[in-house]
Structure formats: structure tokens, C-alpha cells
Amino acid sequence: MSTKEKQLEDLLLAEDTQKQNEIVLYNDDVNTFDHVIETLVYACEHTLEQAEQCSIIVHYKGKCTVKTGPYNELEPRCSMLLDAGLSAEIV
């Protein structure tokens, strides 16, 4: 095995073992679609289409993963969602 192949293998292994957390947004009977969409665009940097799709999934399924990544990147985003009155958690 060449050095280049070994480095690529190590990189792929590191990516597989890195824990990815998720922000899960939950449905509620309080917030409007427009508020949820605007908040997802602001807090999670979604496009308008992504935010609309997530809001529809949350409405019909009860929850939706809206962002994935390392915990330290998700925590401030989740806080923004909570500060806006949405129900969300990092799992």
C-alpha cells in the first residue's frame, strides 16, 4: 500500500468515527409556518425551499432533522431556534 493510499484510508476512517449530532425540530401548535421558515433560514442558514420543506415535514411527521454537524457548531443554532420560541433539541 502506498503512502498516499494509507493517508486516504486514515482520512476516511477519521471521517467515519467523527460523531455527527443533529438538531431535531418538533411540531407545536403555536408557531406559524412563516415564523418557522424565517427562523430556519436565519438560524440554520437554510434556503427558502429547504426551510419550507422542513416546516412541512415537521407539521405532518411531528419532527424533522434540520441540521447535522459537530455539537459545538449546532449548539448556538439550536439556541437561536429555542430563543425564537421553537421546540428543538440536539441529539
Q: In CATH, what is the class?
A: Alpha Beta
Would you give the CATH topology?
A: Ribosomal Protein L30, Chain: A
Number of helices: 4
Residues in helices, as a percent range = 55-70%
What portion of the residues fall into strands of 2 or more residues?
15-25%
SS content category: alpha+beta
Number of domains: 1
What can you tell me about this protein's structure?
By secondary structure, the chain is of the alpha+beta class. The chain has a single domain (19-90), classed as Ribosomal Protein L30, Chain: A (2-Layer Sandwich). Helix content is 59%, strand content 19%. It has four helices and three strands, in the order H-E-H-H-E-H-E. It has helices at residues 3-17, 33-44, 48-61, 71-83; strands spanning 21-26, 63-69, 87-90. The protein has a three-stranded antiparallel sheet. Helix 2 packs across helix 3 (48-61) and helix 2 (33-44) packs antiparallel against helix 4 (71-83). The longest helix has 15 residues, at 3-17. The termini are far apart. The mean pLDDT is 91. Residues 18-83 form the Adaptor protein ClpS core domain. One of its GO terms (molecular function) is peptidase activity. This is ATP-dependent Clp protease adaptor protein ClpS. Keywords: Hydrolase, Protease. InterPro entries: ClpS_core, Ribosomal_bL12_C/ClpS-like.
List keywords for this structure.
Ribosomal Protein L30, Chain: A; single chain; Ribosomal_bL12_C/ClpS-like; alpha+beta; 91 residues
Compact overview of the structure:
GO terms for molecular function: peptidase activity. The protein is an alpha+beta fold and 91 residues long. The protein has helices at residues 3-17, 33-44, 48-61, 71-83; strands spanning 21-26, 63-69, 87-90.
